[in-house]
Amino acid sequence: MKDNDRGFNSDVISGRNPVSEAIRSGRPIDKILVARGEKSGAVVGILAKARERQIPVKEVDRSKLDYITGGTAHQGIAAFAAVKDYCSVDDIFEYAKELNEPPFIVVLDELEDPHNLGAIIRTAECAGVHGIIVPKRRSAGLSYAVGKASAGAVEYMRVARVTNIARLIDELKERGVWVYGADMDGTNYTECDLSGPCAIVIGNEGKGISQLVRQKCDVIVSLPMKGKINSLNASVAAGILMYHAAKGR
C-alpha cells in the first residue's frame, strides 16, 4: 500500500452522496476509487460525472476501500480531494510569458511517492520553475500528503496533468522547449546549458524514465556517482538539476 493510498487523512471523501456532492460543487479531486464490480445506478451516475470532469477512476478491491476509509460506510466509492486545482500546460507557458522568461518546466514521468512530489514542488518554487507536469495515471497527485511535504509551496506552483507524457514532450519541443531527461549513461549535467527554454524530466523512483520518454528527450543528463550506490533519490536529483538550470537563468 503506497502512502498516497492510505486512509485517515482529511483528503479522503467516502460514500456516494459525499463524493457526488464533491464533484457537483467543483471541488478539486485527484482521483476516485470504486469497488471492483460495483454497478449500482448511483455509482454509475457518479462515475459518468467524474469522467466528464476528466477525474481519473480506478477499480480496487472492496477490502482496500475499507482500509482507505478507516472502516466507514463508503458504499463502494471514495474520492481523494486535491489540495488545489490543476492548471493547463498553456497556463504554465502563459505564466513564463508574463514574467518575460524562457519556459522552465519540470516533467514527472510516473513519480509515485507523494513525499517526493511535495519535495520537488517545494524546490521548484524556490528555483523559479514556472510549472510542473504529471501524468493523470500512475502518478502521485496533489493530495494532502503532497501539500504537507511541499511546506505550502503547492499553493504557488502551477501543476498540470496530461494523459500521455511522450505526447507532451512532442508538444513541448514544438513550442521551442529543449527537453532534458535525467537518467543513467547520459551527458554529465555540468556540461549542459539549461539556461534557455527547458524541461527537466524526472522518472519513477524505481524504474526511472520510460524507454519511450527517454527516446523523445533531446538530451539525457546524468549526475556523476562517486559513492557505492548508483542512484539518487528522485527529489534530490531533481533539486540538483533545477538549481543547475536556475544558475544560468
What's the count of strands? 10
Q: Per DSSP, what share of the residues sits in E-state strands of 2 or more residues?
A: 15-25%
Instruction: Bin the helical content.
Output: 25-40%
Specify the number of helices. Answer: 9
Distance between the termini: 40 Å
Mean pLDDT: 89
Strand order of the largest sheet: 7-6-5-9-8-10
Work out the radius of gyration: 19 Å
* Tertiary shape: elongated
N-to-C SSE series? EHEHEHEHEHEHEHEEHEH
The biggest beta sheet, please?
A: 6 strands, parallel
Low-pLDDT residue spans = 1-9
User: How would you classify the helix and strand content by structural class?
Assistant: alpha/beta
Task: Give a brief rundown of this model.
The chain is about 35% helix and about 20% strand.
Keywords:
21% strand, 249 residues, alpha/beta, 35% helix, 4-stranded mixed beta sheet, 9 helices, 6-stranded parallel beta sheet
